[in-house]
Design goal:
about 625 residues; alpha+beta; PSTPO5379-like fold; 2 domains; 6-stranded antiparallel beta sheet; 21 strands; mitochondrion; GLUCM_C; D-glutamate cyclase, mitochondrial
């Protein structure tokens, strides 16, 4: 019995050409060599299909396009014959799979007018996974890899359109970075993952029922990791419905003589070295960003946790909450923001200037990134906040007005109906809630300012939206605060009670998934806007966010986002607007950061400028 692992690609093709049933699929053989998906189409469709490959390079990395009627594979393999060199082929007529055959030689007359496309295959990176210490479960179990149709639509080109197909390989959680880095370095074998976590986020309902290949068993502690798959080409053939077309049979690849391009993850530049970060456990979801982007956001996070009032705010700080919150926001489609802290309870209006500027800064960036954004506030302040939003548009602080609404609890299901269409938790209106400098409910059910004064009579129960969201899969929450009595800061309430003045009384009891601690809450809003800019400029994150489909980032997009970054001038405009409506400075006035609500102390201006410098570095 011959050993496939020790044979050269040429020898393996010779065995396949003999139609030996010893090679049922090519997973786990020809280690370190590039394998290829194969699509053979009539010459009249060739240009459209090449355009389809270029537009969807992650599932369809084009290795070689043959000349019309060419059996050999050009530079990919010496002495090859595409009619004989795959273990099995699919024959399609009018987009319908008619049969599977071991040879295409009987179709030689038809092949004279056809063009062969060779597309990269993930089998080419399996040896790189092993070298990085990542177990390849399908190879361990002697199975073909699992392949699934997704709900992710490929970019249409000419007559070709179809959902993307992915492969799934279970990976131990502590090996996720290694898996992402070792495969990212091989773009012609589909590159890095396009999704990590819950398969339902890709529209895959049951991992035990793959559309192609075998069901691969996960081991305890494994996380499902999905890579784009060249079987997308088979789906494209079926959608186009050509009179006659051929593809390889799933898992039965063409083995090339070319070594899979490998780069040691240790030599990847920080701008191109992916890191995986868990952003949700319900559903399980990991995101990816480059090491450089992660480091940049950590520096931004450190800047905004500076403590100008020496109140000991650092005791509430959790590293990477800004990173995780912004990765989650980057994946979101609809965001609800809330702000409003009526600290001036004896005045009308009782609001303070900390909160609204940061909320609008976040809304501006999210809006530029194509997210739907809504702001929810107290009913008593609704009209004022709607006017503030309109003035912000007129002054150029935000491009388009964001809807400003209120929430009133009228029963136990009010929050559920507010958050979800028809009160159905499987149909959420929003996938992320953000609270910035928003009064948070304490353990006793009251709301307190930092001096321990109960202001419950001025606060609507927006906390209910956060507590209800915690029970709904797919809605993530973030709280931004600078004292521990803000909505969402319940995540760090033990530290608030231990270290903050009046902490045992004022600590917010309502936790968010992510709690961003800052010296001044507005700074947290600016940091979110800046971190979102950094992430979406990161090619590694951009690719993951878009599943490797479509074009790269354009200069026009970058310019649009840059225009939405916070500036000292925008902050000054926001203060003028707030003072116009009688909003007063809060605790920040006592820290020497604002003068008359109109003029900045240099320290505050310096923070905003340093944020911009770090973001644009």
């Amino acid at each position: 019995m011959w050993q496939s692992a020790s044979l050269s690609p040429s020898a393996l093709r010779s065995i396949i050409r003999l139609q030996s049933r010893d090679i049922k699929h090519t997973s786990g053989i020809a280690a370190g060599y590039q394998q290829a998906n194969v699509v053979i189409l009539h010459k009249d469709l060739a240009d459209d299909f090449e355009a389809f490959c270029r537009a969807n390079s992650s599932p369809l990395p084009l290795l070689y396009r043959s000349k019309c009627g060419e059996w050999s594979s050009g530079p990919l393999a010496t002495g090859s014959d595409i009619r004989e060199d795959c273990p099995e082929y699919c024959v399609f007529e009018n987009g319908v799979l008619m049969k599977k055959v071991a040879s295409l030689s009987s179709y030689t007359p038809q092949l004279q007018d056809m063009v062969t496309f060779y597309l990269g295959c993930s089998f080419g990176f399996e040896s790189a996974l092993k070298a990085a210490g990542v177990p390849v479960r399908n190879v361990e179990q002697g199975k073909n890899v699992s392949m699934y149709k997704t709900s992710v639509a490929c970019i249409r080109a000419g007559q070709f359109h179809c959902p993307m197909v992915v492969t799934m390989r279970p990976v131990p959680e502590d090996k996720l970075d290694a898996a992402a880095q070792s495969t990212h370095a091989i773009p012609l074998a589909h590159g890095g993952p396009v999704h990590i976590g819950d398969p339902k986020l890709l529209g895959i309902q049951d991992l035990s029922q793959p559309d192609y290949g075998d069901s691969v068993e996960q081991c305890p502690g494994d996380v499902p990791v999905f890579w784009a798959c060249g079987i997308t080409g088979v789906e494209a053939v079926q959608s186009c419905k050509p009179t006659l077309a051929f593809t390889h049979s799933p898992g039965c690849m063409f083995i090339t003589d070319q070594k899979a391009e490998t780069i040691s993850p240790l030599t990847l530049e920080p701008a191109h070295c992916p890191l995986t970060i868990c952003i949700s456990q319900n559903p399980q979801h990991y995101s990816i960003a480059s090491k450089r982007a992660v480091q940049q956001i950590r520096v931004i996070e450190e800047l905004v946790v500076e403590d100008p009032g020496s109140r000991g705010i650092r005791a509430l700080f959790l590293q990477d909450e800004l990173l995780k919150a912004c990765l989650s926001l980057s994946h979101s489609s609809s965001v609800l923001i809330t702000t409003g802290f009526p600290t001036h309870y004896m005045h009308n209006p009782p609001e303070e200037t900390d909160g609204p500027p940061g909320a609008i800064a976040m809304a501006a960036m999210l809006q530029a990134l194509g997210k739907e954004v809504v702001i929810v506030t107290d009913g008593r302040a609704l009209e004022m906040n709607q006017h503030i939003m309109q003035d912000a548009v007129e002054k150029g602080v935000i491009k388009t007005a964001v809807p400003v609404i209120s929430f009133q609890s009228e029963g136990p299901d009010s929050a559920l109906h507010f958050l979800c269409h028809d009160g159905d938790p499987t149909k959420p209106r929003f996938d992320h809630l953000v609270a910035i400098e928003r009064s948070g409910r304490a353990t006793d059910g009251n709301y307190y300012n930092m001096r321990g004064v109960n202001i419950k009579h001025l606060v609507d129960p927006i906390d209910d939206l956060f507590t209800t969201a915690s029970t709904i899969a797919g809605i993530t929450t973030t709280g931004i605060g600078d004292g521990g009595n803000e909505l969402g800061m319940g995540k760090v309430k033990a530290a608030v009670k231990a270290y903050m003045p009046n902490g045992k009384l004022i600590a917010c009891d309502v936790a968010a998934d992510f709690a961003i601690t800052t010296g001044v809450s507005n700074w947290g809003g600016y940091a979110v806007a800046c971190a979102l800019y950094v992430l979406n400029l990161c090619p590694v994150h951009w690719r993951y966010l878009h599943s490797g489909l479509g074009p790269s980032l354009t200069p026009d997009q970058q310019s649009l986002w840059m225009a939405c970054l916070p500036t000292v001038a925008k902050e000054e405009e926001m203060l003028h607007i707030l003072v116009k409506y009688g909003v007063r400075s809060g605790k920040t006035a006592n820290l020497g950061l604002e003068v008359d609500g109109l003029t900045f102390h240099p320290y505050h201006s310096d923070i905003i400028q340093r944020l911009r410098n770090l973001t644009l570095a």
